[in-house]
């Protein structure tokens, strides 16, 4: 190809109209429950056949449709939670032996916010502003909690599809994160096929920087970052703009901001577009141990996010899947205590 031909090709490409930014979830790909014609009683009757559920599914789905979340009490055995946190504490105490990653939201780590735990001082790992990333990959009990039947069965109904767990975060202290909606940061192949579970690993105290949320906010108009509804390197607005927009709109609509004060073993499952955040920590000594897991459907999350062109290695429990981490195969299931459960 000559230089002139290459130049013509470059000019032609530059003149092509850019695709319009996505400003809303695609209506045709919405989960059935988010569509105007959703028939919850009929769906529940069909879905519940042969299943034994610890809650009234139709009631929970109706609440989800209206409010964008549900709370399940005593959903996870406390001994499972104690085992998981014991493993996290082992990681902290012997951090130099592990490559598992953490995100550090402190000013001095602004240039390298994601690091291997072996490279982070123990006092930092044991303090606030730390997110332990994808600890479930290293932990058998972490996977068993993530894919517990109480979570999986409800989300299987929401998506009307097989559930795939995408990622997890473990916190010792409250995140103090500004108000946001998860779809802007955690993106599946079908953005509306996204949900999360917030699992309390201890009783939540009022001054611990508890999770807060706006019931009904999953229906508000999406925020435009200047290049659509997803935050990325080309966005002209930032997360603070996102938070200010959500707080303002929710208040204008009269949506009440609620604080999540639940007990150890309880959990909150929320919609991709539920506006939520972390309250300020009132008592710096007060922990808020929690395990947050994100989920999608089989049709919407087919590959591990770090290897989009490879078939993932799946772990299956309760008719749901989670992918092994292709970047750290040597640390998969190194904490094996959960095998006895």
CATH superfamily caption = q2cbj1_9rhob like domain
Based on Cα principal axes, name the global outline.
globular
Average pLDDT metric: 94
In total, how many domains does the architecture comprise?
1
For the CA atoms, what is the radius of gyration? 21 Å
Q: Which architecture would the CATH scheme give at its second level? A: Sandwich
Which percent bin holds the helix content?
A: 10-25%
Share in β-strands: 15-25%
What does this structure look like?
There is one protein chain. The chain has 341 residues and is of the alpha+beta class. It has a single domain, classed as Jelly Rolls (Sandwich), CATH 2.60.120. It contains 8 helices and 13 strands. The chain has helices spanning 3-15, 40-47, 57-67, 78-93, 122-125, 140-146, 149-159, 239-252, and strands at residues 69-72, 101-104, 114-116, 130-133, 163-171, 195-200, 211-213, 258-259, 267-271, 276-278, 290-297, 314-317, 320-323. Strands 1, 2, 3, 4, 5, 6, 9, 11, 12 and 13 form a 10-stranded mixed β-sheet that branches. A 3-stranded antiparallel β-sheet has the order 8-7-10, with no helix packed on it. A hairpin with a 2-residue loop joins strand 12 and strand 13. The longest helix has 16 residues, at 78-93. The model has no long low-confidence stretch (mean pLDDT 94).
